[in-house]
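ugh ok fine here u go
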Amino acid sequence: MESLLAEYVADRSHESDAPDGAFTGAAGGAACGDLARISLTLAAGRVDAAVFGTEGCAATRAACACVCDLVEGESVLEAARIGPDRIEEELGGLSPARRHAVLLAADALHRALSAAASSGEPLAEATEGRVLVAVSGGVDSAVAALREKEKGADVVAVTVKLWADPDTDGTKACCSPEAVLGARALTHDLGIPHFTLDLEGPFRERVVDEFLRGYGEGRTPNPCVLCNGEVRIAAMVDLADRVGAECLVTGHYARVVEDEEGALIAAGSDDRKDQSYMLAALPPEVVARLRFPLAELSKAEVREIAERAGLTVAKKPESQDLCFLAGQSKKDFLERHAGLGERPGPVVDLEGNRLGEHPGQHHFTVGQRRGLGVAATEPLYVLGTDPETNSVKVGPRRHLMADRVRIRNAVMHRDGHRVDRVRLRYHTEPVPARIEAPAGRHDRLEIELEEPFEGPAPGQAAVLMSGDVVVGHATIASQAGSK
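structure:
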């Protein structure tokens, strides 16, 4: 072991500054203060050259030299299979005190691969039977990857990094740096190459900023619908093309169906886990590139499969928060990132009479009952908020009931005559509905509900359905009428 380590320490053939055009990854912060940097030059889907630079102990230098030996001349996909265990094996084993060296070298390698994956660079030629599987580090995506591998597919894994914030508990988020490490370890245990796709910039700009703006303007945004529809899934489909995969596989509980006009999202078989609402904003051309191997399974069945296979995530609890809120309150997040702190304003009734005071209209959403701090002879609910006057309007529950809903930014994949129901909130039953609109985009429309719905909230998604198939989506603008 020591002779191999000394050999790699003495090997200076790969120690160099990064050449022009190289993809570089750096990792550091270990207890001894070591830093590792690995740079890869790619050509025709292979690692044409690999160089490294280090600061710190000899073991880190040896581990980086070893990584460069392992990847130079290999395909990019083979390089993406390499993890700490492979590096340590090549070095002949390391003492526990030196284990950090292979962890740093492996992380630097995969950060360099992430730079390549996030660059738009082609990484592999198209290959029949290859699939790209989105792996978040949770049980659903792990079982999706496992099922594809067991079917004989040539599986490549990707984890999307969307958010890194010291105030966020990364262990509870699906797209944090901690989630990336967990997903990478899981896929390497399955013998699957792994890439990280860094989308933190577009996610912050198009999802988090809209979330903050929405609350400031008196709306209740649904960032997951926006993220799936405009940021992460299309980016992963693009990566699928660049690694030569036929499609993108995810662990969502949903289905892809085809009609005479093409592909659409439909509900999964487990009503309790159906995620078609969260995928509703996906364009049909992206839907056509997706596959959902969990579509016919229940959550209990997925956990059973994971346990039988000995997956470490078999009993991992589900993430309950938005990824960028994990471990912190929405109140604190809004204050830190948007300056939406305490801003007292009036609580008013339907006639505009002042009933009390609230800490800021951005803390309230339509249908909310708790936190009003107002005494009344009957329960009061938030009927609306006004950011201009910083007021919260409240009233009896019956005033929440809507039979018409105005929507904005509507996208109709099919003609409105196909619509027979609408889902106005995640985890609520669809409401029988009608809408008159041709296929295409519409700035404003109105949905007529056949049954009253309680508290449609401005900013939430309205998912237009034909049976269990999503045929359009929009954003709720306001309640248009009540019975």
